[in-house]
């Protein structure tokens, strides 16, 4: 069985930036418009000699809040179904939002490993800001900066541990 890592989270938390860093691909277009990446993107990644597929679940439809939330819900449910591990990306600069809580509610039912990734921890002094994410009830928090790559090694060590 191929190992698949799905990146989920609400728009603008840095999913595509993380995807690009993991896959070193330019297929997921990161641009200034949050949530405009419509399709799911699949790319190949490798860490300590272990190969895996990464899915960027940026594909959110536009429309009413209900449609929007339903689309995120679908992405999360597909990820739980299809992935070997799920990276739940949250944003340390905004903290927990209602959508984060809703996604966490879905993920807590997952039998697959879920890694809570506090992104945008660009400097050491922001590390303590991510403590609030423990209240999502999904265990350990991995502080990373997708922009600089800081923390991604520790995250990947644990993600691939069971591959
Ligand atoms: P997505 O909607 O979840 O796919 O988020 P994107 O990857 O498109 O990123 C949304 C915005 O956050 C972009 O302006 C990124 O440059 C920015 N961003 C992503 N990762 C980081 C990070 O680690 N630190 C900072 N400061 N900004 C980031
Ligand atoms: Mg995106």
Give an overview of the whole structure:
This protein is an alpha/beta fold and about 160 residues long. The chain has one domain (about 5-160): Rossmann fold, CATH 3.40.50.300. About 30% of the residues lie in helices and about 20% in strands. The protein has a 6-stranded mixed sheet, with helices on both faces. The longest helix is centred in the middle third of the chain and has 18 residues, at about 65-80. Residues about 30-40 have low confidence and may be disordered. Bound molecules: guanosine-5'-diphosphate and magnesium ion. Magnesium ion (MG) binds next to helix 1.
The CATH architecture classification is 3-Layer(aba) Sandwich
Query: What's the helix count?
Result: 4
Ligands (ions, cofactors included): guanosine-5'-diphosphate, magnesium ion
| Lateral strand order in the biggest sheet | 2-3-1-4-5-6
Unreliable segments of 5+ consecutive residues: 28-38
Overall structural domain count: 1
**Elements, N to C (H/E):** EHEEHEHEEH
Outline the biggest β-sheet. 6 strands, mixed
Radius of gyration: 14 Å
The H-level CATH homologous superfamily, spelled out, is P-loop containing nucleotide triphosphate hydrolases
Number of strands: 6
Query: By helix and strand content, what is the structural category?
Result: alpha/beta
Tell me the helix content: 25-40%
CATH topology description: Rossmann fold
Strand content: 15-25%
């Amino acid at each position: 069985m191929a190992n698949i890592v799905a990146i989920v989270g609400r728009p603008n938390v840095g999913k595509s930036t993380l995807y690009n860093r993991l896959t070193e691909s330019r297929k997921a277009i990161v641009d200034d418009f949050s949530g405009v990446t419509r399709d799911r993107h699949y790319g190949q990644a490798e860490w300590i000699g272990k190969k895996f597929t990464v899915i960027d679940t940026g594909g959110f439809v536009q429309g009413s809040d209900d449609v929007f939330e339903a689309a995120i819900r679908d992405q999360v449910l597909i990820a739980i179904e299809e992935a070997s591990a799920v990276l739940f990306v949250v944003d340390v600069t905004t903290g927990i939002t209602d959508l984060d809580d809703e996604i966490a509610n879905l993920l807590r039912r997952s039998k697959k490993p879920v890694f809570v990734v506090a992104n945008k921890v660009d400097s050491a002094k922001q590390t303590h800001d991510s403590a609030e994410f423990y209240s999502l009830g999904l265990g350990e928090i991995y502080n990373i900066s997708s922009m600089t790559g800081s923390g991604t090694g520790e995250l990947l060590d644990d993600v691939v541990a069971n591959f």
